[in-house]
Amino acid sequence: MADEKIAFVGIGIMGSGMLGNVLKAGYDVTAFDLNQEALDAAVDAGATEAASSAEAAANADLVHTVVPGPPELEAAVFGDNGIAAGIRPGSVFIQHATVDPETVISVADRLKQQGVDTIDAPLLRTPKHAASGNLGFPVGAEPEVYARAKDVLATMSDTIYETGAVGTGSALKLVNNMLNITILCGAMEAITLGTKSGLKLGTMIDAFYTTPARALHFEMMPWVFENRDFSPGFYTTLGHKDIRLAVKHALNLRVPTSVSAAAYAMMAQAEASGLGRETYSSVLKLYEAAAEVTVELERDKLFEDDNV
Q: How far is CA 251 from CA 174, 180, 246, in A?
C-alpha cells in the first residue's frame, strides 16, 4: 500500500478512469462527486465515500479535482463544504480541469494562504486513455511540489510535460485544444467544399494523408464518417468552452487569434444549434446545412489500409 492518502473530487467520465488506476497502484483513496451513481461506482472500485468535498480532502495528502471548467473548479474548492474547508496545511491540491491560467493562479494564491501548494495538471487525451492510464499531463508547479505527486501522476499517465509555474499547465492545455478545434473546423469545412464540388470523401481522405493536410481527427473518430455517429467523445459544449477560454486568454495577453476566433464562432454556433451533447465534430452539420450537402462515405471503411 502506497503511503500517501489521496482524495478525488469529481469522478465522471475522466475522473473515474483516473481514480481506478490510482486504486490499482495501491493508494488509499477517498472520493466525492455530486452524482451519487458515479460515487457508488467509485466505492465499488475500492474508494471510500465522502459526504462532501471538504470531507474528502480532510485526511488526504494529495487532493485531485477533475471537473469541467472554471465555475465548477471554484465551487469544488471554495463553495459550501468545498475542498478549502477541509484541506490540511501541508497538503497538495492538484487540479485537472481545463481552465484559464488566471483562474488556476487565483485558486493557488488563495490556497497558499492556508499553507496548501497547488499543482496545475490538466488532462490531455481521451476517456479511453484515462481508463488505460495513458493520459498526458502538462504540469505547472514548483519542482519540489511536483516531486511529491510525481508517483501518483505516473499511475495515470505515460507522458508528463513539466511546463513551469502554476498556470503554465493550463496554458499548454488551452493552446493544445485551440489548435485541435481550429484544425477540426478547417477539416470539416474542406470536406464539405469537396463534397459540394463532386469529390468522394474517401478520395479526399486518401489524398490528405499524403500531404501536410492530414488531420488526425479522421483517424481518431472514424465512426463519425463511416456511420455518421456523432455520439461523444468530447462534447461540443466542452470544445466551445475550451476555445472560448483560449481566445479570452489570448485577449488578456494581446495576442491575435483571427483564425482560432473563427473556429470559436463555429463552436459557439454548434452549441447554440443544439449540438452541445454531441461530439465536437458535429460542427460538420453546420457546414453541410449551409452548403446543402451531406458528407457521406462511399465505401465501408474510412481507411482501406488497416495500418493507417
A: 13, 19, 9
DSSP-derived letter for residue 287 is: H
172/139 Cα distance (integer angstroms):
9
Q: What is the pLDDT of residues 264-285, one digit of tens each?
A: 999 999 999 999 999 999 999 9
The structural domains of the chain, ordered by start, are 5-165 (3.40.50.720), 171-291 (1.10.1040.10)
Please report, as a single letter, which amino acid is at residue 141: A
Residues in the chain: 308
Please tell me whether residue 126 adopts helix, strand or coil conformation. Answer: coil
Q: How many angstroms separate the first and last alpha carbons of the chain?
A: 41
DSSP string, 10-50: --STTHHHHHHHHHHTT-EEEEE-S-HHHHHHHHHHTPEE-
Listed in sequence order, the residues at least 6 apart from 235 whose beta carbon sits closer than 8 Å to its beta carbon are 276, 277, 278, 279, 280
DSSP-derived 3-state class of residue 109: helix
- Catalogue the long-range contacts made by 299-305 (C-beta closer than 8 Å, 24 or more residues apart): 299/202, 300/226, 301/222, 301/226, 302/201, 302/202, 302/205, 302/218, 302/222, 302/225, 302/226, 303/205, 303/219, 303/222, 304/202, 304/206
pTM above 0.70, yes or no: yes
Q: Please give the Cα distance from 53 to 67 (Å, whole number).
A: 12
Please tell me the distance from the alpha carbon of residue 53 to that of residue 34, in angstroms, as a whole number: 9
Q: How confident is the model over 214-245, as pLDDT tens digits?
A: 999 999 999 999 999 999 889 999 999 999 99
Q: Is 131 exposed, middle or buried (0-12, 13-18, 19+ CB in 10 A)?
A: middle
**Separation CA 260–CA 135 (nearest Å):** 25
E runs forming strands in the chain: 5-9, 28-32, 48-49, 62-65, 92-95, 117-120, 135-140, 157-164
